Amino acid sequence: MTGTSPSDFAKRLDKTADDTEALLGRLLADDILHDEIARPKRLMDAMRYSSLNGGKRLRPFLVVESAAVFGVPREAALLVGAALECIHCYSLIHDDLPAMDNSDLRRGRPTLHKKTDDATAILAGDGLLTLAFDIVTRDEIHRDANVRLLLTRALARCAGIGGMVGGQILDLAGEGRFGGNEPIDVARIQQMKTGALLRYGCIAGAILGQASQKEYQALDDYGRALGEAFQIADDLLDVEGDAAALGKPAGADAALGKTTFVTQLGIEGAKQRVRDLLARADGAVSIFGDRAAVLQAAARFVAERKN
Length: 307
Fold this sequence. Notes:
Blueprint: H1 6-27, H2 41-51, H3 58-68, H4 74-95, E1 105-106, E2 109-110, H5 112-115, H6 118-136, H7 145-159, H8 164-174, H9 186-208, H10 213-240, H11 243-246, H12 252-256, H13 261-284, H14 293-304
Antiparallel strand pairs: 1-2
Helix pairs in contact: 1-3, 1-4, 2-6, 3-4, 3-9, 4-6, 4-9, 7-9, 8-9, 9-10, 10-13, 10-14, 13-14
């Protein structure tokens, strides 16, 4: 890994995961905030179950490391990362529901609707979604309200109808859920369903750092390449991985009849596409010199991960 050893990268990733865990724990405490009336115990327990004690926290890590390129205070980047992680965790809760992927396991544990019930899972997801926008607008993130506005707008667009949520419905359509024979654009589905939140992790650092247009575009290009590499690696893991390492059943995509990068490109073609995307990601952030070493290592981590 250019400029960053595997052990140093792992330490940085683990440190951000630990810091994000601690921050989410505080944000999801039972203490009532100004303008809140109550924090119902069942709801809070469900939100904590699905957002604490698990995951690599890759999305917050991307926020922290992209922001570090510009010398942004770590505490501010962690808050934005926590907001992004709330969106990610909410999406997993809803994705696991019987009406969506109908999954029994997530991170090696029963999914939330299996642990509790569908209604609690839906509301816990709703709670995490709305909490994300509470967090990302907080004054501690940046003294300039316009920066906070840009962060909030970008998060809404990456998470919403033109991003993750839109990608979810296209993915379901690709399974034939709604009848008809609509053409399946796997790359478009990936860009929206999975890639949009990963991309946000990269452009959020540029927004926080008040980057130039050239710098913003570099991180945008990097985020798009990393997001696609992540999804192809995920598709490969669904075919080649084992359930114990994944923390969820392998072969789920095939069982649902999903069209993936692997079904379109084949295993070797998919692996070559990942290598091409790594080269693209490296090139995109090369304008930052040594400051990009951790981001370049992150792209390799995404491509080589086992779970």
